[in-house]
Automatic annotation (TrEMBL):
PANTHER family: OXOGLUTARATE/IRON-DEPENDENT DIOXYGENASE. One of its GO terms (molecular function) is metal ion binding. This is aminocyclopropanecarboxylate oxidase. Belongs to the iron/ascorbate-dependent oxidoreductase family. The lineage of its organism: Eukaryota, Viridiplantae, Streptophyta, Embryophyta, Tracheophyta. It comes from Nicotiana sylvestris (Wood tobacco). SUPFAM superfamilies: Clavaminate synthase-like. InterPro entries: DIOX_N, IPNS-like_FE2OG_OXY, IPNS-like_sf, Oxoglu/Fe-dep_dioxygenase_dom, Plant_2OG-oxidoreductases.
Length: 313
């Protein structure tokens, strides 16, 4: 079993209907799919790989060697009684976040320019993907973007880019690269390593590899798209395995609601469902910032209690 691979350029031609159907299936049955011919220039992707690899070497690697996961893993490996145990509550991952207004790594040549350009392209791709979701869900064009941008005052949707490296791990059986979770936000666009795998999704009770496909962008939907679509598009559990060889790079960009946005199932989808099934929606209405407060405490737990917690607020 492999996650769907979809040629995004075919949306513009004779095969538009089939492509919309493939994306619909990717969203409904998988929650994850890979896009090829997505319009991001390969030349830009090559520069992104280069500056991120250089940035890790120059500005991150040394600190990772002294990081908490490395210390905890060493302690466990050296202790006599490790048995089958695992290091708890940490991930074998080096991470930093790029947003429009935080501090970026500044010592790697071309890093800032390249990643600014990359983020601007990825944001456009996110908006195109959301428009396809609007269309497939039978919503007005721009509905998802509008829902994410609502709220008073500073009402912009949040677009963040998380640059991760998963360095080679001496005891992969003792620590996760990233523990299993569903993503909190909206649409996630992942540019993963060409060579080193490790990402897996849970499908019908089985963990499936998201195998590297050079220069593809992996799309997945977070908890907010599940709510907005009234459960038609489920956010899917995924995790990253640590590996003995290779330093895996992954760059995840998140198009998330503004913290002030009110998120709820789209009324169109609730009405249709009610008429057909005479059933009230299972999803709450809440402010996204409240959801994030819960998520930050419960990221690695099931999402249902998160929905219950914000319903009660
Ligand atoms: O590194 C990856 O492949 C996935 C990262 C991820 O799931 C996340 O940052 O939420
Ligand atoms: Fe994730």
């Amino acid at each position: 079993m492999t996650i769907p691979v979809i040629d995004f350029s075919k949306l513009d031609g004779e095969e538009r209907a089939q492509t919309l159907a493939q994306i619909s299936k990717g969203c409904e049955e998988w929650g994850f799919f890979q896009l090829v011919n997505h319009g991001i220039p390969v030349e830009l992707l090559e520069r992104v790989k280069k500056v991120c690899a250089e940035c890790f070497k120059l500005e991150r690697e040394e600190a990772f060697k002294n990081s908490t996961p490395v210390k905890l893993l060493n302690e466990l490996a050296e202790s006599k009684k490790n048995g089958n145990s695992k290091v708890e509550n940490v991930d074998w991952e080096d991470v930093f976040l790029l947003t429009d207004d935080n501090e970026w790594p500044s010592n790697t040549p071309q890093f800032r320019e390249t990643m600014k350009e990359y983020r601007s392209e990825l944001k456009k791709l996110a908006e195109s993907v959301m428009e396809v979701m609007d269309e497939n869900l039978g919503l007005q064009k721009g509905s998802i973007k509008k829902a994410f941008n609502e709220g008073e005052g500073d009402n912009n949707a949040f677009f963040g880019t998380k640059v991760s490296h998963y360095p080679p791990c001496p005891h992969p059986e003792m620590v996760n690269g990233l523990r299993a979770h569903t993503d909190a936000g909206g649409v996630i666009l992942l540019f993963q390593d060409d060579q080193v795998d490790g990402l897996q999704i849970l499908k019908d009770g089985e963990w499936i590899d998201v195998s590297p496909l050079p220069n593809a962008i992996v799309i997945n939907t977070g908890d907010q798209i599940e709510v907005l679509s009234n459960g038609k598009y489920k956010s899917v559990w995924h995790r990253v395995m640590s590996k003995p060889d290779g330093n895996r790079r992954s760059i995840a960009s998140f198009y998330n609601p503004s913290l002030k946005a009110t998120i709820a199932p789209a009324p169109e989808l609730v009405e249709m469902k009610d008429k057909k099934e005479m059933e009230i929606t299972n999803y709450p209405t809440f402010v996204f910032g409240d959801y994030m407060n819960v998520y930050n405490e419960q990221k690695f737990l099931p999402k249902e209690p998160r929905f219950q917690a914000v319903r009660a607020m």
